[in-house]
Amino acid sequence: MSVNLIDVKDLDAIAIGAALYGTGGGGDPHIGKLLAQRAIRAHGPARLITLDELRDDDLIISVAMIGAPTVMLERLAETAPLVLALRQLEAKLGRKAAALFSGEVGGMNSVIPFSVAAELGLPLVDGDTMGRAFPKLDMTLCALHGIDAAPLALADEKGNGLVLDTVDVQSLEGMVRALTMEMGGSCYSALYSMTVAQARKSLVLGSISMTQRTGKALFEARERHLDPVAELVRVTDGHCLFKGKVIDLQRTIDGRWSKGLARITGLDEHRGEDVELLYQNEFLVARSEERILASTPDLICTVDMETGEPITAEQVRYGLRVAVLGLPCVPEWRTPAAIARVGPRAFGYDLDYRPVEQLTMDRR
Amino acid sequence: MSVNLIDVKDLDAIAIGAALYGTGGGGDPHIGKLLAQRAIRAHGPARLITLDELRDDDLIISVAMIGAPTVMLERLAETAPLVLALRQLEAKLGRKAAALFSGEVGGMNSVIPFSVAAELGLPLVDGDTMGRAFPKLDMTLCALHGIDAAPLALADEKGNGLVLDTVDVQSLEGMVRALTMEMGGSCYSALYSMTVAQARKSLVLGSISMTQRTGKALFEARERHLDPVAELVRVTDGHCLFKGKVIDLQRTIDGRWSKGLARITGLDEHRGEDVELLYQNEFLVARSEERILASTPDLICTVDMETGEPITAEQVRYGLRVAVLGLPCVPEWRTPAAIARVGPRAFGYDLDYRPVEQLTMDRR
Lengths: 364, 364
Hints:
Chain A is an alpha+beta fold. Chain A has twelve helices and 17 strands. The first copy, chain A, has helices spanning 8-21, 29-43, 69-74, 80-93, 112-120, 141-144, 169-182, 196-202, 207-223, 228-236, 336-342, 356-363; strands at residues 3-6, 46-49, 59-67, 99-101, 124-125, 127-128, 152-155, 161-165, 186-195, 204-205, 239-254, 257-266, 274-280, 282-288, 292-295, 299-304, 321-327.
């Protein structure tokens, strides 16, 4: 079936899956989930569809929150400014969106669009621009395919709105950063407008239902008293890279960036080894003194060792016992052009990317 | 005649008049003049018209540079980004402008619109939003009449553009300030869109031809070896408040604001008295220890004592011999509501406004 009706309970699964794929960043999906659930209670289920439900020249648009996750957590998200941003972008384009989609499968922005979809009765495409979450506007497979985030609309809770029509992503990033700061650290956006024909080539399709399957598997593991971490590894085709206890934490906020590292000391079979997780909004590198365990664009996820509950970089704190999972990114991120854009060196880390499954194999 | 063809030479007069009415701020009109003269050489004279040449429901739009005068002086102004801002605003409104107008009669923005008018073959309305220059977007008679600066388009030399659609002027000021800084300290704008019917009630009409008459009078005084300062006083219905030598100067740049004071020690009949000119982009208060000579919204202008050449706050330097002129503002600025918006207290000066002609009378 190509239409998947997403009800309040389905969002619980999607949100917990999105928290995992958020690789520590993207903001806690909990707030976005509450917002979407409220809209679904008021307007009925959201329709998650495949691109086959649309015509090739239909327009689709992503809606998202932009800003530092820490700030987003402190503000109550609203649907109205997302609708305002969407309307401003539609007016700019002179066309209405036939469907919405999520910019990323990780974090808050995976679930936020469901609130707008439910409220406006628009379907949501089962797909996203990266199959994970990255912090910059051009760190998407769409951008690699020449589809820009701009024109990009921003709005705030007061009813202010604007549309940016920029010529390069540096200008766009700079203006969005300046405006986000001015708007109080976070704001609401509509972006990445494209036709369905463009979406076929550039979106990661099926990624939202993947988060739903992952969340469901976690809930079932808990119900059936299976090891949640093992079940997450199974359903994601991932690897358990490390288990340990958080012993140190360094965190700074720099503009709309949250940066830092978490240090974890090994437990069980990892006793005696310390691992550092380096993050810039998302976890980007997992390393010990001896070796690299995984690096961007592969996904580095932390979950509670006992419950499998995903833990964002914001939630990491001293004493937490965590499992670090490594999930292979989608193959499109592993080309030289993609690695140049989102590999370790793109974030300032002096190391070469190697696929997480190779790194894990080497270790055995 | 209601159409006044503005050629290269006419702009010399307008620019020097605009420098006077700029009351020390608004940026040196020289750069704007060169830009407009280049456009006129390429495309023919600009048409300065009265509102009678237009229909009541015609749309008119102002184009302007926004930013710190110091920064504007260091960048070569261009017409293309003004056209881009205009086009973005027109697209937002879904209507083309039938004519342009100048936001202020003081400084660079009095002459900048001539470049766009000449290039696009659009007429320019003989009027502005304030009959002088003020630094904030809502310090206009239009704003007092409920006509907003927003929707407001911004653009830069790279080709980036955006349209702000804000709900209050605080939001607009904040976003424009943040974006202006991000765009390098100055940028190009289209704003204050209104119908001709609205313009009839809220624009200061005839103010551009007034700057032209003032500039011509100064040129003629020089040719005929008359006292230029006396001629300026005569043609502007103004007052010569003080003559002296600049002995001190304090200047800071704070965001897109240039703030400071100039201290002048009296010459001739003013010997023995020191006067301070306080400015925030424009000269706002002229005072000595004993008395207030003039204050906003009346116009405080400095000119070279010998040549009558207007001197901006940026050009004031130690040793200059200047005459300080006080020009009555338009009567609309003297209502209690207007004084609340642009009187001394609106700029943080703890003094009551009194009309410059009364202050001058008291002294005699």
